[in-house]
Input
Amino acid sequence: MTHSQRHRSPAKLAAWLQKVMARAIAHLPALSSMGGQVHQHASWHAAGLESHLHTLHESLTALEWGARWPGPEEAEARGHLGSRAEQLRASAERAVSGADTFLQRSEVAAGRLGPALLEFVQAFRVLEKVVERCGEWMLELEEGLARSFDAEVSERLSELRSRLALLQAVDRSARNVHALADSLAVTRPKLAEAVQRKVKPSCASLCSRLVLLLQGPLAPDSAVHGVTGARSEAQIWVTQALSLALRMQASQDRLVREAGALRHRCSLLPRAGQDGDRLLPRKGLATAG
Output
């Protein structure tokens, strides 16, 4: 707030607030539309990938009990391990195939999200500054009314407060949409790296070790330990990828709610602004700016 604005009368401050908030309200439909675009391009549904990774994790856990060779029951043990190895191979193939499809789809969505998020952030930053400034002016207006009472402005103070509260609510929703969309943009490459560089090679290595173990006539301790170690490594990376997929899904669910709240609050403000001409006395509007 400038020095001159600090010494404006309550009527002039109220008129200035009304004009600034009216300009902010005029831009809200565009902000709402941009928020919808961010939501649309950020919604890479991770539910399918999450399900595949969970199944793969269960198959890996089952191997912990299968990589044992009790001497008298070697044939039965081989059969159990072979069955679990086949389950692992099938679940790994489904997870990898699902991951490839997911990553291709999300790469396209991420390419669209970048520009939409940038445009949204630029509009949001403008709103953020306006709301902060209006909050300062509202405090100054209330202090001015306490010193120099103006009945007409005082009667309409609650309406000004209501409109500022709605603008502040839109500002909070926009902050959340921005943060959640940004979180998705950050998490997506981490998930892609975890699947492509960790999950796929570790599962491939484990499956190869299992094939060699089952083909051999004996099961030396070194081979069993090798399978167990490979299983542990694969399980670590699958757990990490599953955690990232769950994080993405949670962010997407919250983004749906926040984008809906943003659109709803933006729809309230234009209606609140339609009565701008009666919000302040004409003499107040005439002295603004």
Remarks:
- The first helix runs from residue 3 to 6.
- The CA atoms of residues 157 and 280 lie 9 Å apart.
